[in-house]
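Reopening this one. Same input as before:
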Amino acid sequence: MADQKPVETVLAESQPATQDVAPGSSEQPAEPVATTTATSAEPAANEENIAPTTDEANNATDTDAGTSAAAKPEEQPAYLVKIPALVQFFDKLPALLASTGHGEMWGVPLKDRDDVPTVNVLIKFLRANDGNLPAAEEQLRKALAWRKEMDPLALVSTGKHSKLKFDGLGFVTNYEENGQPLVFTWNIYGAVKDMSATFENLDEFIQWRVALMEVAVQDLKMKDATTVIDYDGEDPYQMYQVHDYLNVKFLRMDPTVRAATKKTIEVFSTAYPELLREKFFVNVPAIMGWMFSAMKLILSRNTTRKFHPISNGVNLAREFPLGIAAQIPTVYGGKGPELSKGARSLALEDDTGVEAKDHAQTAVAKPAETAAPAVPAKDDEPAKEELAKDAPTVTEEATPAAAEVK
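Same output, byte for byte:
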């Protein structure tokens, strides 16, 4: 027992030869146990890059990943990669919204590049301008400014439109094909009872026509879109349009109709691009066939390929698959109800009793159409000459929806 060494001595002797000491001294530290503990911990701390702890390794991995991510370019959605001009368009959008003070288009609140409805709106403006970014920007600027001033959504909900002037002239129908809704707008120009009464107040006519268009646009449900449209492919957010010219005479148009037509084209060409899928002109006189050939020379191919003149309205249903054809009104060759019973229209103020007296004298003995002398039965050259005089007007009247395409 006498040879047993104190515990402190045993511990001191068992320390590594590399035990730290005070600088310039050969003596061991006064407290070997504490020194031994601190010394044994130091290599682990000094060698953390060689054998890091689990937490340290995780932290290092996160740091490396962050550095790597920062070094890589930001990944963009496929539609931005495919349409480079769209990226630049979104860069310009905040300034466009600020300059116009309006941020809504067709019921869609315009946001950023991650918002699908906004993406679709900008794609339509790009397509309408064949990818020309400056032109698309300018058109969007004008359209936003126009919507702020006109407030077309309010024209639908609270606008006051004359029954005397617009009753029976415009309808909207929703059909269905393979579960997909198909929106149709119908403009029944032959239903105009008094040209002067309907078209004389230009602002009133435009408000009615815009409101009808907005009803159809709302039915497209663009604000609920979850898929970006294919820039070069099918676009589900487009409508069909039917213009019925039964009993309408194309020659020597009334000046008020000319003015209304010109203004309609001006508004729709700016504010409603790429919303037309197909357009049908029905009950168009056969002699007017040359007009559509002429239109191909002055309008873009993308526009005219959507135009379909049909001399007899009953043949319209033949242009569609059986499922759709069955829903079209019988007067157009389908099996559906007539428009006045199966379609929607704008709410109209019943002013027939009030204003009818004011228009009685002008309406009496005045046909709805603005007719020209009858076309000679054997020789139609004189008629063609008259058509040539009015060709610009005829084209405008027959193509107000051409403006709705581009």
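So the earlier flakiness isn't reproducible anymore. For the record, The longest helix spans residues 202-220.
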